[in-house]
Amino acid sequence: MVVTIDGPAGSGKSTAARKLAARLQIAYLDTGAMYRAIALAALVRGVDLSDENAVTGLARGLRLELDCGPTFTRVKVDGVDVSEAIRTMAVSRATSEVAQHQAVRALLVAEQRKIGRRLGSFVSEGRDQGSVVFPEADAKFVLEAGAVKRAERRYQEHVADGEEISLEAVLENVLARDAIDSKQWEPLLIRGEAIVLDTTHLSIAEVIDRMVAELDRIRS
Fold this sequence. Notes:
Helix content: 40-55%
Low-confidence stretches: none
Structural class: alpha/beta
Order of helices and strands: EHEHHEEEHHEHEHHEH
Largest sheet: 5 strands, parallel
Strand content: 15-25%
Number of domains: 1
């Protein structure tokens, strides 16, 4: 079974994908981690994020490895585990710029499909998974949530990781990413083909229960 979960930053798609994959006992593919890994490498190596040729050249030269378990996606760049390093606010800001480059996206779409063929059954999350990367997925979900709620979730994640940051700064980042993402990702979310869930007032357990119910309906 192939399940895709798309949505904006902080909508809960990563947590939902991990927990749904665990419930189904299939792999979890975090495609956002791939963009984050390239962004981190660009920051470390001083590559101009606005230079598409430079960023694409960097991406082509990286050895990007993903270990997709049912509750995690571990990421290595050139043999170094960067699974934690890619979660900082600085990388979040850089990731939006990296994802704007069509050549980078084309490169990663091809890689994501390759990983998908290897995994067979998986839950994949991102922003174009159900519409572009895996259009033949068995089930497609789109998660939404209000900006303030999404910022609160991201803030809690950063605090849990020991990063010192204010909620206001996180909200500013979420709104900035929304402005950028609306131009490049929104047309890719084909809502007529997806099950849309507003997670603003839902617990993660409620989200998973609704997803499982939809999957049971689809498979029946």
